[in-house]
# Entry
Amino acid sequence: MDSRLIRLCLILMVFFPAMVVAQPLPEEMADEIRHSAAEVQTLSSQFVQEKFLSMFAETLTSNGRFYYQRPDQLRWELTEPVGSGFVLNGDHGERWHERVDGSEPFRLEDDPAMSLIAEQLFAWARADLRWLQEHYQIELIGVEPICLRLTPPEGQGRAFLDHLLIQFSDSAAYVTEVEIHEHDGDYTRIRFSHTDVNAPLTGTLFTGREGL
Amino acid sequence: MISVLFNYFQGHRRLLFVVYGLFVVVSFALLMRLTPQETIDAMLPDATGSTVRDDFTWLQRAPFARKVFIDLEVSDPQQQAILKAGGKALAVALEERLQTTVTDGPPIQQQATLLSHLSEALPRLVTEEDLQVIAKRLADDAIMTERLVQIKSQLMTPQGWWTKGQLQRDPLQLWQLSADHLRDLNPFAGAGGEHGAFVSRDGRHRLLMVDTTVEIGDVTASRRLLSEIDTAILETLPPEVTATVVSGHRYTVANADTVQRDIRVVFSVASVAILLIFMVLLRNVRALWVFFLPASVLGIAAFMVTVWFPQLSGITLGFGAVLLGITVDFTLHVFFALRSGGAPLGALQRLTRPLVGSALTSFMAFSVLLYSTLPGQRQLAVFSMTAIAAALLLALVVMPHLCGIASGAMARSRHEAVRHHPRAAWIWLVVVMVAAFGCSRLTFDGDLRRLSVQTAALSHGEALMKQVWGDVRSRTLIFSQGNTEHDALAVNARVAELIASQQSSASLVSLATLLPTEQHQQQSLFRWQDFWQQHQPQWQRFFELAQQQGFSATAFESFDTALSQPSPLLNLPFWQQAGLGTVIEGLLVTDLPQGTAVVSLLDTGKAGEERALELDSRLEQIPGVVVVDQSQFRQQLSAQVGHDFITFILRAMAVVVVVLAVWYRRLSRMVLALLPVLGGLVVMFGVMGWLGLAFNLFNVIAAILIIGLGVDYGIFMVNRCQYGSGMHTDKAVLVSALTTLAGFGSLALARHPAMSSMGLTVLFGISAAVLTALLVVPTVYAHWCSTSPKGGSS
# Structure
């Protein structure tokens, strides 16, 4: 191969990701995500959460479990180092903490913070591209696997969120990694693993703390 | 004059009937066009110097006047989770069904900015007690370490994204101290325990407050509202949870249901009774005119009220219709006189004098109501005076041509004798004397609430609310007025300051907690700054502990920054931005003709009545302050209406005496004519006194009926004794009394307190008055005045 051509290839390889960043999400790729995600009825996975916060000298790492059932049931639970979590069932939910007995019911309508969090989690869980396109400016920053950068418009979400990075599975059916970047440079990375797609889930998972 | 008219219309009956027909059409049309005002306003005194009317207007502006309270209860405190879930589910269901707001806790919107606003507000709210709490936290390493662990754990949850900034700005959760100040805004003394929800101290009760635009007096809408609530309760709550609904709307519906039931019962009984009277004593289809003729003046009389008053009161119209009973006497006497078999013109001429006399006394008696402090009673005076005048005219001019001529039994009995009943007169005297002793026991009750239906369910609801949540709806209301919101708040702050300075056990729900005066805010600010200067070492210790827990050196520097920055002034916009708009708006009255008022709720229950009164008078010395105490309001109303009532009775009696004195010019006849009134009133007052029945706003009207009818009976019976009969006077008096008893006495069977009290009053009074007229007057006349009979049988 001509050395010029080799150099060109090397340059392209180096700058390709940057060229992808600048691109909007191609329609065929969007279709692929929509099509794959539509097949997903349930998800269950484990996750590792890493918090890179300026408040701490070191990264805060925690582990947890995540369950989702279409259309609007979700369980998010930290198991280590502190047990806490919540379930969502439509507009209603319950949250708990290991230091407190029982759980506290809430309504998303009354709790703007939980409402925003639920919105995010459902969007990732469903890989709901239509919803994401309505609520974020989406840019493609990786193709294999698909990785998107989501920037929220001005509004309540923008108060704590600068942008999100979402990485999809090879099949584009579900999310494998999320990074939540805040305005002050702090960010949280959540890596999902051991994901089961469409495995049957017991209904009690989404009824409360003891549902698992 | 009457003879001329009688003779003229004898030959022109068609003309008379056409004119009367027109009169009926006009009267009916006027009645249909009038829209009476369905409020209690007309029954509130408007005398100069009386604050009752203003107080009532202020009471309508009470923060909880129109809310529906739902108490949810479980028998076992272990079922709190079920209670909580049931409460939430019911709140959702009610909001969906009623498209309204349902509050299950202090109305604080969970806005993102609330905590930061509470933190920001603390420097200007802080008290010495608050600073002691902070000092205690700073002095204990264990407390601070525990807090740091909490912060760390919280930051790991998804909620941590939301709360990180707040945790950095306020690591010691000082916002809670500001939030504690908000507790002073909680009107429910019985609430405690769970944050953000109305939960009773024992955890067995939760409270929901339903907002509604339905007026308390709107029966149809109230019924619909309560039905929706009942359905939501039935569909949503698990069997373990019991719901009790307390609201003014429930009283409205209960009253309406009772009145409907009462109308069915009373109407049936009265119809049967009147039918029997008709069949036994009248026995003629033309007798229907006896009832129709007086009724046809209703529209004209109501119209005359609107000429003198801007609004016709529904209560006036209702009572006016009742008082038309008096005018039935006129037509009854004409009917009996003209059907007695004699020459019609002669009978009419003999009847005219007592008829005019009785109408005149009633007319004059009602005229004293023109001086009443109650606008409704003044309206009633105009109504009754018009009705009496019109009914008299119809009785003398129209009735003779409608009632036909006599035949049969009536005509044959024209020469009946006056019967004397000496034994009955003695018995009457004993009864009156016994009753007279009971009069001293008679009380007057101006409490409007006691005229409302009180079912077991309503009583239970009220008692439960009071026991679990405190006596929210009976608290003293303090309105601080100002031309602007700022002015009103300044007055309100002075009120709170005065109450605090009294150091009484009175508790106050006031916006002053959130909005102290600028001077107080400045004092708190100095206190706050001084504290942190003195506690720098302890604060540094917190930093050291934070670093031991893995926090960076800059983790909480925004708290340091906040300490050195100026604290924002606490004003309305500040708290509205914080999400406390609902709390503030609930205690603001912005629809005043001029300016705004801030409402505070004062519980003086523990302060003792004297101290409470002293406090009230001190508060009222602050310009712009109006104090409305519900029990004092009831006392004042009771006192004023009671005074009005006594004045009326005395004036009416005086007027009647004067009219009778002029009319008869002889003491004996005057006293005799008054005897049925005296007998009726004394027996009525006495029996009520002995039975412990109080006089109220409604049966005052019944007293008027007793005076009006009693005088009529007296005049007719004196006339009968004086000039002889031949006109079935006894029968006319008896029928008049029986129809009154059938119509109004049957109200005694009603369950509604107002209707029943009126029925009982009429029953006692009319029975006594008619017995006095029929049994006592002829007997006394025979012994006292028989020296100069002017004819007729004796």
